[in-house]
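S1.2 Input.
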Amino acid sequence: MNQSPRLRELPAVNSVLTSLPIEPLRKQYPDTTLVGWIRQSLEKVRRSLQSEKLGATGDIKGEVIRQVLQHQHEIAGNSVKQVINATGIILHTNLGRAPLAEAAIQRVTQVARTSNVELNLHTGKRNHRGDYCVELLRQLTGCEDALLVNNCAAATMMVLQVIACQREVIIARGQLIEIGGGYRLPDVFTASGAILHEVGTTNRTYVHDYEHAVSAETAAVMRVHHSNFKQTGFVTEPTIRELVEMKRSDDLPVIDDLGSGWLDSTDELQLDEPSVKASVASGADLTLFSGDKLLGGPQCGIILGSGRWIKLLRQSPLMRAMRLDKLTLGALEATLEIHLNGDALSDIPTLRMINESTESIRSRSEKLASLIKSNAEIRVIQCLSQIGGGALPCQQLPSYGISIATAKPNVLADHLRRGATSIQSRVSADSVILDLRTVDASQIDIIADNLRQSFALISGDSDHA
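S1.3 Output.
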């Protein structure tokens, strides 16, 4: 490889570190971090010089600085920050699923400081972490006891490991699900030490399939909600009540893994989703579900059940590894209080978005369109929203939003995503779509400002006409 004479022009590390463009970064990052980035950038520029990719008159120091700033932008893109969800997907996994209720946000702020996470303030004695949440869950669902872990996958893993390690769990073949992130139920069984015993066929399973499979090696019977897909046509599956009432001993628990956490705490909103209350009322020994998704709280896993089985789980050494932190507990408490007070439809953002009328969404869309002054073709359009997040996979909701026709839809979407307040949109053909079902009224002005800035950055409004 030829040695470029311009290698001598590579700047010293300190020269780049003390340069004016890098100065703002020194307020955000320690010098040791920046020095590492500078050295990486110097190596990239050195390789470019050796391969003659950098021209004979290119600004070498400027290129090193550009590489450092580019690296910082990439790092910043991974840091967790607020995003305005204009995709129309209410429970967007990549965007953190359920946005918290305002009361939950306030509770998180309060308990972020010193808090009585394991102290009863009335008695002055130590309590069990999450006792108040357990009491709220008893009142909401009628369960005997409850246990809280860090997500529903953890709940499934813990139940299988504690109750069925080295023993069989009977499950319908059509319920051996895979959900996002490569989470496959058979792999969870393997990791927990439980032995998977499939019964029935992919599309039809009967109670007698379970009854015939029970043996001395059977530790539990399990039902798993399909979560992100739906079987239709020639399909049969026992209900949870039928599994509870099948011929079995008291030592053979029925586990109901609901996943989505539809509590069914409000009569106004009826969803085609198995509910937590119905599972408990049916007599399921253990009911598992998520604290986010349709419950509308923070990410966590909730296990409801009889005192006998919950006590066994609580005594497991896994409990300490899977317990909730104080911030999640605070948010969950506030979310459960909202459900108990009957305010879920108005105060839980997820349920409010599902229930909102199209007329209200259209009004918000028209307001946003009126705030955008541009040569671009901007229209208020009808569109379809999705609930998403492992719940109601086939249900779409009629919605409204705005369509921005542009020769560069991906460029505009990128600018919106990378803005001071990130806005996640959809790209369809030659347009950027903002679905307003998932956008709060307080975010309209922010979106309008970001759109104006984005138009200015992409070679002026004339490029959008």
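S1.4 Remarks. Residues 156 and 288 are 7 Å apart (CA to CA).
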